[in-house]
Automatic annotation (TrEMBL):
CDD domains: GH43_ABN-like. Residues 512-703 form the Beta-xylosidase C-terminal Concanavalin A-like domain. Transmembrane segments: none annotated. It comes from the Bacteria. Belongs to the glycosyl hydrolase 43 family. Pfam families: GH43_C2, Glyco_hydro_43. The active site is at 28 (proton acceptor), 205 (proton donor). The keyword Hydrolase applies. It comes from Nonomuraea jabiensis. This is Beta-xylosidase C-terminal Concanavalin A-like domain-containing protein. The record marks 157 as: Important for catalytic activity, responsible for pKa modulation of the active site Glu and correct orientation of both the proton donor and substrate. The lineage of its organism: Bacteria, Bacillati, Actinomycetota, Actinomycetes, Streptosporangiales. Keywords: Glycosidase, Hydrolase, Signal. The keyword Ubl conjugation does not apply. One of its GO terms (biological process) is carbohydrate metabolic process.
């Protein structure tokens, strides 16, 4: 291979976590591209390095390429609190936006001085002229604490969204209380009207909303963020035709249902990273979407001492759209190392820090204050053809935009107008572009799309598509004086449209159809005499016992697992009803090494919800640790699968969880691992609570060769 090619490959390689250059932990990241052309990310208030022991109030990092980041300071000093925050209050989960000419950061305030209670969460906001600050607190909470009996709902994890009609919304909430949306005032700094619940409690937090192909997608993080080596955090999605919902998953199951829906977007895959969640999204200069999120290195899960602050560095991976649904790396999950990097420089690429030597027709155009100002037509000396994406930041009181050959896309007081050949269309742009907006034009064959956002965060305020031809010189056009910055033109990304492979079943290796007595291959750990084969099922009354923790009294029914890759499947009917609290009645499959070393896939009642939870218990640093990962929505009868794979690189046993509501359409969740030399058996459990009495009816257990 030529040395230049090798050098290019090395340069294009990046390693997760991308925050490693400046921090050991950088949880709940948000991201925006500033008007200066740099990308900025903001994290939850934690120490940045092991041993530091000092909290940073919303630390800020900056990058030119989204891969190499530098810490540039904190949004606020240690004593810089808003007037309504109690002393010692923490700031969590920032969300960054560019609204009407200024940067607005939303964040969780953990303790509000307006009530006597602790942990009376509220949503605060601050504004700044640049992404680096200086930040000025807003004097009142955007969303005030919301009482619930003797405590307060989780008014946490804000995420702002602006719709095509100019209305601004804020999504917020967490496990205690669910996810909510409220409309905001025109300046984005006050909640107006009545908030509306959009996702059930006890399942989601970390909301993030984007608009894609006419749908609004609500993405939320599920399971536990911070269980150290057993953290099973993941990202799930629902979509709607309205920013207020109702949001449903790929199978049409509502996110507000007791048997709550949610289509997996990001799950741990068996590599070093677990607990993948609380994310932000962005679009690079080629049009490819990316996700920034945090995760936990399972070999180093705590920042300092075990069971202290969870160490959650920031990762970056490609976000694809598969059959209308977002999926990180087409469903492959987090990467440790990637040869795909975001496109952050174009063939045409000008941040206007120098002269206009890269342009023609420069009369009437001047570079000032880091951008170009002028009127008429400014033509780039560089060009590229084929499928491309051209974008610029601009502001104008008149009319200004992008020209590609004979095609123009311009914004004005009338809105966004896209003209190609004899076709011209206009849509409104609420508020116009008197402050900085981003205009992007994509050309794919004869399909030309123009989109206006405030900061490329998948919240288009105007978009248009026409059929035509866009070939020729690339330029900026202005009818009247306009300002432009961050101009780029790059080859359009090639979309990944095929999902990553999921486990499949090969030939049948072993089965018990429960048509007679339990076969001799079953063995019990603490036999339950109440479990009987009758009416073609193994009928097992759910026990008032559990495996989690040190008090191991629950029964486990086990059989030996085959060598190599295999899939174990069962069909279980468990009538847990809906809505009522029945903690934590459950039944399902188990991969079992011991009472304190297992992975359990169950249909389970978690407070008012019914979920398919894939839990893991193990011993770490002399203590038992338990956490869960969430798979697909359950039904009264749910099919469950555990797919076993031996990692050829390290010999680890990887078990991936799958669930189905009909036995045909499968949803695949995360992976839990066991060390190489662990003897793992497979089997069934039915425990978590004996009241009200309920039977778990297992139709069969089948073991297939993995395919």
């Amino acid at each position: 291979m030529h040395l230049a090619v090798i050098a290019t490959l090395i340069l294009s390689l990046f390693t997760n976590p991308v925050s490693g250059s400046f921090s050991d932990t950088f949880a709940d990241p948000s991201v925006i591209r500033g008007q200066d052309g740099y990308w900025y990310s903001y994290g939850t208030s934690d120490p940045l390095r092991e041993g530091e022991k000092v909290l940073h109030r919303l630390p800020i990092a900056r990058s030119a390429d989204l891969v190499n980041w530098t810490y540039i300071g904190d949004a606020f000093g240690p004593d810089n609190l808003p007037s309504y925050a109690a002393p010692g209050s923490l700031f969590w989960a920032p969300d960054i936006r560019y609204l009407d000419g200024r940067y607005v950061m939303y964040f969780t305030v953990t303790d509000t001085a307006t009530t006597p209670a602790n942990w009376d969460y509220s949503i605060g906001a601050a504004t700044a002229p640049t992404p680096a600050g200086p930040w000025t607190h807003i004097d009142a909470p955007v969303v005030a604490p919301r009482p619930s009996g003797n405590s307060y709902w989780n008014t946490i994890d804000p995420s702002q969204f602006t719709d095509v009609d100019g209305r601004k919304y804020l999504y917020f909430g967490g496990f205690f209380g669910g996810l909510w949306v409220t409309e905001l005032s025109a300046d984005g700094l006050r909640a107006t009207g009545q908030p509306q619940q959009v996702a059930i409690d006890n399942k989601f937090e970390g909301a993030y909303v984007v608009r894609h192909d006419g749908y609004y997608y609500l993405l939320g993080s599920s399971a536990n963020c911070c269980a150290g080596p057993t953290t099973g955090y993941s990202v799930l999605a629902g979509r709607s035709t309205s920013p207020r919902g109702p949001f449903v998953d790929r199978e049409g199951v509502p996110l507000l249902a007791s048997r709550a829906g949610g289509t997996p977007v990001l799950d741990q895959n068996g590599n070093r990273f677990i607990g993948t969640g609380h994310h932000a999204q962005l679009t690079d200069l080629s049009g490819q979407d990316w996700m920034l999120y945090h995760a936990i290195d399972r070999s180093d899960p705590f920042l300092d001492e075990p069971y202290g602050i969870n160490e959650r560095p920031m990762l970056l991976d490609r976000l694809d759209w598969i059959d209308g649904w977002p999926a990180v790396r087409a469903g492959a999950g987090p990467s440790e190392q990637s040869r795909e990097t975001p496109v952050t420089r174009g063939v045409v690429d000008d941040r206007f820090a120098g002269d206009l030597s890269g342009w023609r027709n420069t009369a009437g155009w001047t570079v000032q204050d880091g951008h170009v100002r002028g009127q008429g037509t400014l033509i780039s000396r560089k060009s590229l053809g084929g499928d491309i994406r051209v974008e610029t930041d601009l502001k104008t009181d008149k009319s200004a935009g992008i020209r590609i050959g004979g095609t123009t896309a311009v914004v004005s007081r009338d809105g966004l107008t896209l003209t190609s050949g004899g076709t011209s269309r206009t849509v409104p742009l609420p508020g116009g572009a008197a402050t900085w907006h981003n205009l992007a034009v994509t050309v794919k064959g004869r399909t030309i799309t123009a989109e206006v956002t405030e900061a490329r965060l998948r919240d288009p305020q105007a978009s248009l598509t026409v059929t035509g031809s866009a070939n020729g010189p690339i330029g900026l056009v202005a009818d009247g004086v306009a300002d432009f910055d961050n101009v780029s033109a790059a080859p359009l990304f090639k979309a990944v449209t095929r999902a990553a492979p999921t486990p499949r079943t090969g030939r049948l290796l072993d089965a018990d159809e429960f048509t007679g007595a339990l076969d001799s291959r079953w063995t019990w750990v603490r036999q339950d005499a109440a479990a009987k084969v009758e009416e073609g099922v193994l009928r097992w009354p759910v026990q008032g016992a559990d495996l989690v923790g040190a008090d191991n009294k629950a029964s486990v029914l086990l059989r030996e697992a085959p060598e190599g890759d295999y899939v174990v499947e069962t069909k279980v009917t468990l009538d847990l009803g809906e809505d009522a609290v029945r903690n934590y009645q459950q039944a399902g499959l188990v991969a079992y090494a011991s009472d304190d070393d297992f992975a359990r896939l169950s249909q389970v009642a978690i407070w008012n919800t019914r979920q398919v939870e894939y839990g893991r218990e193990l011993t770490f640093a002399g203590r038992l640790s338990y956490g869960g990962n969430i798979v697909g929505p359950p039904a009264r009868t749910t099919w469950l699968r555990l797919a076993h794979h031996v990692d050829p690189a390290n010999g680890e046993h990887e078990f991936r969880a799958g669930s189905s509501r009909d036995g045909r359409t499968w949803t695949w969740g995360g992976v839990w691992t066991f060390p190489k030399d662990t003897a793992v058996r497979i089997g069934l459990v039915a425990h978590g609570g004996a009241q009200p009495a309920v039977n778990a009816d297992f139709d069969y257990v089948r073991v297939y060769r993995g395919a």
